[in-house]
Amino acid sequence: MKVGRRLEGVRVRPESLGPFLHFKRGRYTRNLVYRDSRFEVVVNCWDCGVSSPIHDHSDQECWFSIQAGTFQLEDYPLLAGGKAPGYALLGPPSIAESVGLGHVDYRGRLDSIHRVCVLEGPAVSLHVYAAPVEECLVFDVRRQRCAPRRLCYHSVFGRPVDTRPPSQVPDRP
After folding, report:
1. pLDDT on residue 73
2. Which pairing describes strands 40-46 and 114-129: parallel, antiparallel, or unpaired?
3. What does the domain layout of the chain look like in residue ranges?
4. Average of pLDDT values for 105-124?
5. 3-state class of 24 per DSSP?
6. Which of 101, 119, 140, 153 is the most buried (most CB within 10 A)?
7. Would you state the pLDDT for residue 79?
8. What is the rounded CA–CA span in Å between residue 82 and residue 87?
9. What CATH code would you report for 2-14+26-155?
């Protein structure tokens, strides 16, 4: 939890984030800032009204700090299945009050299934993962299923790329 305490209330100077701010209409982008075998730092850029899919973090710890915009966070309890692709039964979401600038959210193994929704944007969130995350499970509540999704970056170290999977990005020492 030291990471979360360090991120609490942190506001990164907008000019420092500049090289990592790559927005796409109607979606969010993942922009790699730093990566080594121990952790990665990603800036997500969100268009107004965009939501992530309901997803987990593949048993990785994650902290994210809101740098711009207003978000609504939805937590989903796992009732059955959902540890591997296939059957997954989620309970009704617990929806937190809207959160904004400086809020830090933590995801661990026991509370990782969630959705992030942008209420006011464009929005920016700074994510720190305890280890690089290359894949997660995405949940379909209606069909009671989950499936793996390979993650990708839209920019790497400030340079836009045609979406690139983390496995093709060398770690930065």
Report:
1. 95
2. antiparallel
3. 2-14+26-155
4. 89
5. coil
6. 153
7. 96
8. 6
9. 2.60.120.10
